[in-house]
Amino acid sequence: MTRDQIAEEVGCSRSMINALALGQRGKRLSYEIGVGLKSLFERLENNRHAA
């Protein structure tokens, strides 16, 4: 999955995903982005286990 796709799924900018991936954003992010990332991870894990 590309960073553009992650950003689209989560509902944030690609630059936010880049900063998180590079550790430049730190540990503080909005609740909505955190929930979106968690939800995306869970969907991907469920799809992987179902395959």
Question: What does this protein structure show overall?
Answer:
The protein has 51 residues and is mostly helical. The protein has 3 helices and no strands. The chain is globular. The model has no long low-confidence stretch (mean pLDDT 92).
Topology as a string of helices (H) and strands (E): HHH
List segments where confidence is low: pLDDT < 50 over at least 5 consecutive residues: none
The helical percent reads over 70%
Principal-axes geometry comes out as: globular
Largest sheet: none
**Total helical elements:** 3
Please indicate the percent range of residues in DSSP E strands (runs of 2 or more): under 5%
CA-to-CA gap between the ends?
A: 17 Å
- Number of DSSP-assigned strands: 0
Mean pLDDT: 92
- CA gyration radius, whole angstroms: 11 Å
- Estimated structural class: mainly alpha
Features of the shown structure:
0% strand, mainly alpha, 51 residues
Secondary structure blueprint with pairings:
Elements: H1 3-10, H2 14-21, H3 31-50
In summary, what is this structure?
By secondary structure, the protein is an all-alpha fold. It has three helices and no strands.
